[in-house]
């Protein structure tokens, strides 16, 4: 009786499988028809895909200790009349805690009056969510504990508890404001490194190019983690685009939509304006921004470096790459790599404080 029973179950399972397959195929066909129409009628919708700031943790950022964070201070800066950005300061182990009554009192005691040989890292996160996400906390904590640097991270306009709406130029203005604020409050006496991850790497690169033009003496270098060539190439190579990029409309319509939305997030084209050390970090199992992006950026950077030397210009520009093979770090877990900080110390950061 067991065998006939099993035979009766098989047709039922087969029918369910066929129905599910038909539903998935139908949804795919519907999406293939709807997406090009949306991109034609409402091209600026692509900005929601690029920024993904609609994804939020809903966290209370004023109490970093609720995220298991120790010695982290939350504050805000007014970039523009309608834009206030939220910032976390991860205090260096070399900074002694002192009582304070106001934000200004905190700044004076924990930033202004501190040793000028303690460098600063400004961490620019990628798209979606905010500064409270565990991978971003993990990287900032690692940088603080192993380098003993002060680390600042913030949410761009429209992210987390920061006000305003994101645009490419707006995000760069936020980044520049934080850098200028730290440069001014420390009287330009402390080295400032910038670190960008994913979308943040393009923001960091564009900021670094502008700082190089301004010859900012406190600017010490840039690290780009999981960077991309430009945002159009990033969309083309994202694992989700595998479903649509073979279709004839995908390349042209996404390019046009990004252009209309004034989104380019060029990285490679800004390398030629850098006058500082640059380090690329990438895992070979990153399927969000494939490893090939960094390989192409490295090759472009080496060509630019050699050209600079022959023309005797921008001589402080150097480029290196640290690859992570078979580590399971993907797009945002490089902070778990045990050799990350030792490798960076050999290339860009100070060995010891």
Write the layout of secondary structure elements.
Elements: H1 2-41, H2 46-51, E1 72-80, E2 83-90, H3 103-112, E3 120-124, H4 134-147, E4 150-154, H5 168-185, E5 192-197, H6 199-214, E6 219-225, H7 231-237, H8 248-260, E7 277-283, H9 292-311, E8 318-324, H10 340-347
Parallel strand pairs: 3-4, 3-5, 5-6, 6-7, 7-8
Antiparallel strand pairs: 1-2, 2-4
Helix pairs in contact: 5-6, 7-8
Question: Could you write a compact summary of the structure shown?
Answer:
The protein is an alpha/beta fold and 353 residues long.
Structure description:
This is AB hydrolase-1 domain-containing protein. One of its GO terms (molecular function) is monoacylglycerol lipase activity. Keywords: Membrane, Transmembrane, Transmembrane helix. One of its GO terms (cellular component) is endoplasmic reticulum membrane. One of its GO terms (biological process) is monoacylglycerol catabolic process. It is a single chain. With 353 residues, the chain is of the alpha/beta class. The protein has one domain (48-349): Alpha/Beta hydrolase fold, catalytic domain (Rossmann fold), CATH 3.40.50. The protein has helices at 2-41, 46-51, 103-112, 134-147, 168-185, 199-214, 231-237, 248-260, 292-311, 340-347, and strands spanning 72-80, 83-90, 120-124, 150-154, 192-197, 219-225, 277-283, 318-324. An eight-stranded mixed β-sheet has the order 1-2-4-3-5-6-7-8, sandwiched between helices. Strand 7, helix 9 (292-311) and strand 8 form a beta-alpha-beta unit. Helix 5 packs across helix 6 (199-214) and helix 7 packs antiparallel against helix 8 (248-260). It is globular, with a radius of gyration of 23 Å. The mean pLDDT is 93.
